[in-house]
Description:
The protein is an all-alpha fold. It has helices at residues 2-23, 33-62, 72-77, 79-92, 103-122. Helix 1 (2-23) packs across helix 5 (103-122).
Amino acid sequence: MLGRIQTRLFLLAVVGGLVTLVLAPVLPIPGGWGAHYRETFIVLATVAVLGVAWECVYHLLMQWRWEKDWPTLFALVTLVPEGVLVWLLLRAGHVPGAGPPVLAAFLWHFTLVWIAVWLVAQGPMRVPFIRWRFHGGRLL
Length: 140
């Protein structure tokens, strides 16, 4: 489980950070670029923090599976419950520093970051980190 958490945080920081840097200026968020970057990086940080709790839930659920792991499609589809939770927390004002969310901006940002992270985890990540696959996802 520690490896899954490390992988999630690494991919969100690197891949999610790069996608956010490119995407933030074009999202329909009120205010200047500072507001765009502040809101999108707060969402990214929220996903990272909540991701640690989600990994605990997913680990528990995987214990009932024969392989003790998710099929690849499940890893992609988990964007729905995670996205809904982040959206509800933003709407309720429970995320410090975040303003009222714009639905279109949130959907574009969250979905594109999620797909980019998922694609890198399923393909390119396996090339430079060949040992990662054989050590439970631990990067170190």
